[in-house]
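Sample intake sheet
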Amino acid sequence: MIKTLFAKSGLATALTSEQLYFVTDAANKGALLGIYADETNDQVKLYFKDNGNTAANEVLTLDSENGKAETAAEAIIDAINGLLKNAQVVKVSDGVDSVNGIDGVDFPAFTVANTDVAITATATDDFTFTLGSATIGCTFSATLAMDDESHEFTKTGAITTATDTIKFDSTDFSAGAATITVTLTNPNQQDVTEQVSQPATITA
């Protein structure tokens, strides 16, 4: 009997780590080699042999609920062993049904560049921050806050390219130290998020 682990974020082809994996003997491509429950980072990692598909990764990372990584990993093992309703296909995470304790498919970390920005007296939308390696299809919430708590501004939207830019209106800001915080969220799996926060210097 061939069993399959199914993981889907709903972000189309933005994540190459979500695939159909066949659980067979270790000699075959795509075989599951091991499962690691990472309670520190609230993740479950499934390690596979190269399945011959160039679009696939060898590690499928799943975000788990706080303190439930080991429980989720055991549930996946039970399913593979045929103990969970004797299922042939196990939905690890598809945005609707999933293994108990799994929030969804993890997406990669991203970066924020251009942290030294200048104020132009007559300009608007001139605080521009560029993302790197952002996951397409995610929604974003970005906050630019002056460290002296004088002003704070938030922008929201959706990621359309891995290098999307986020712009803020300069009208209510003055020169000084600030902090930019950007959070990406999978709209299909709301508990799956990535956040980057770092200093930004506003110059006159």
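Comment: The first helix runs from residue 69 to 80. The chain is about 5% helix and 45% strand.
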